[in-house]
Amino acid sequence: MEPYNINKSIFRLDKFMTKNILIKICFSCAFFLSTAVYFSNLGHGTPSLQKHLLIFRSLKELKLWIPKITELRNQYYKGMEDLLNPNKPFKETYDKLFLSHTTVLPFSELPQALILDRIRGYLIGVMNSDEQNTMKAIGQLNPLKLQFNPGVNSFYGGFYYYSCGGILIFAKFMGYISLKSNIDFYFLNPEETRRMYILIRSIGVISTLLTGCLLFFWMGSLSNYKNGFLSFLFFIFTPGLITYSHFAKAHTYGMFLMFLGFYFSWKTIDAPSKKNYLLSGLFLGCSAGSIITNLAVGAILFLVEFGKNNWKFKPTFLNKKFWMSCIIFLGVYFITNYYIFTDFSGFQRFLLAIKEYLQGYDESYGEFRFSQSMQFLKDMFTSQIHWSIFPFLMTGCIASAISDKLFFKICFYIFGFLLLMNMLFTRHPGVNMRIMPLVAILSTFGCTSLLKYNFKLFRGFIFIYIFFSISLSFIKSYFYSTFNQEPDHFYLAGQWTNSQIPKGESIGVMEGILSQVLFPPIYFLDYKLISIPVSLKQLSFTKENLPNYVISRSIDHPILQKYYEIAQSWVQPNKFLGIPFETKGIFSGHVDLFILKKK
User: Fold this and answer.
1) How many of the other CB atoms lie within 10 Å of CB of 153?
2) pTM beyond cutoff 0.85
């Protein structure tokens, strides 16, 4: 079986298009356009003075409440320590820490301590709580004291946190941030926190753009730069990448490291030097060290070596260099995540906490749920990538499976294995980001396979459909980027509430949950916040029990439909340029939000 070496272009345009220089100019234009889109609005939803002044009328007023807010924060961290302590009863400790809102009786007023505890997240957090955990984990690091343990309750891997910490230290050296150890400083200086979030999020953007560059030049060197350019377009206009590159999360960073590791692993076929084996194990190990679900990318080392040896086990396992790369892969993971093993019982408790937290979600790590796996696969082609790429991807997968082109066959096996692992064990859209370069490669191969047919009308249709698919993917990606624009609906709702609802009024909070993804920032301490139960079973109430206002993301609740009317609303867009798009899975402040007034 021979390596991938296609000399024919999928495009047959004029003679000028056959020159690589013009393709590279087109790539440069597309790259700079993508850079502008990806880097736009990196600070969306982060702490700001404007948001602070929706909660407190001045920083002086906020300063009066900081001691109490800090005390409640310390109580929360103490609760996390208890949760991870194997000597404490798990279920009881979990419920006490995460289900405290259930202690508020239906139609009762939220206590001030609970409100202040929730205000903390509005002051220093963002809508996606995973990002807050990233910042907390980085805050645990202190290289000067040889403290490299981000805590076993950190969601991602040590290598990601060390990389983030390095970026912040460099930014401090350049005078962009201060890196104070006093939490009071960040409560009173939200712009400092905002800059830190922007820096960490920029890692995801840079990783995505670097992956696109590697994809273009790698594919260009393997075949021709026109195929490389097409692969780049399929990749960079992936809607899911717009969403996940704007989070302080490890998914796109792990994707780049995985693809870089795959590149060096592939180089071992033509140049089986120790350097290439070492680098492949190193970068794949760094990818796994950035997020535990990427331990699965270690399979790339085996699949490339297995394919290189004509799919025979014996020469694969007899290659000492292969085993060296495997040892390096595992060694990098263990070194960058050593703290898991020094406190393994705490790590096990953390996994229990994640499993408990995700019981109501489709992910439910570690549990096989076939029906949810099928729904996840459907969501992949509606939220993560555009459905129009499906024919090319499927054609590419089939063509790869039966092809004698080793490169594509290996890409197909890696793609299938990593997708299957996610479908079976995590069902998390972020984990799927690691396969997006492979989706682009296989889709490009699908195009080349379809364009081999000499029927002109069919080829013309394929050219048109390529343009159609890439255009729709770009439009959807740009549409997703608009969800990062400010001000968002929560900010506008906070402004409206503070200016239109008088001080002392009662405002309903669904289930009594004050969260940035459910409730806008308002002068919380100025109002009587009343818990509205979702379930009305075995509950009796009268209209007089109800608050005068309710703020909710939905108006489907029977109480809201019967006793309230809409005073103001903001509706999440689901169309762009008249084209409908799925918006499931987007963490954004541009959601449906309703302020209702009692009739």
Assistant:
1) 20
2) yes
pLDDT for the residue numbered 472: 94
Residues 326-355, mean pLDDT to the nearest whole number: 87
Question: Stretch 15-23: mean pLDDT, rounded?
Answer: 64
SS3 181: coil
Give 99-155 as a DSSP string: -GGGGSPTTPBPPHHHHHHHHHHHHH--SSHHHHHHHHHHHT-BGGGTB----TT-S
Residue with tokens 């076929």: 269
State how far the Cα of 116 lies from the Cα of 133, in Å rounded to an integer. Answer: 19
Give dist(CA 599, CA 595) in Å, integer: 13
- Residue of 311, 320, 330 whose CA lies nearest to 406: 311
| Segment 27-55, tens digit of pLDDT | 999 999 999 999 999 999 999 999 999 99
**DSSP codes joined into one string, 331-389:** HHHHHHTHHHHHTHHHHHHHHHHHHHHGGGSS--TT---HHHHHHHHHHIIIIIS-GGG
Write b or e for each residue in 71-105: b if 16 or more Cβ atoms lie within 10 A of its Cβ, otherwise e: ebbeeeeebbebbbeeeeebeebbeebeebbeebe
pLDDT for 496 equals 98
pLDDT of residue 435: 97
Note whether 91 and 83 are within 8 A (CB): no
The span from the CA of 456 to the CA of 464, in Å, is 12
Neighbours of 243 (CB within 10 A): 25
Q: Is 502 exposed, middle or buried (0-12, 13-18, 19+ CB in 10 A)?
A: exposed
What is the maximal distance between C-alpha atoms in the chain?
A: 79
Which strand (E) or helix (H) includes residue 209? Answer: helix 190-222
- Residue count of the chain: 599
> What is the residue-wise DSSP string for 418-465?
HHHHHHHHT--TTGGGGGHHHHHHHHHHHHHHHTT---HHHHHHHHHH
pLDDT higher at 153 or 598: 598
Please state the rounded mean pLDDT for residues 487-506.
96
Helices then strands (H, E): number in the chain? Answer: 25, 7
**Bond into 190 cis (ω within 30):** no
Beta-ladder partners of 569: 594
Average pLDDT over residues 345-369: 68
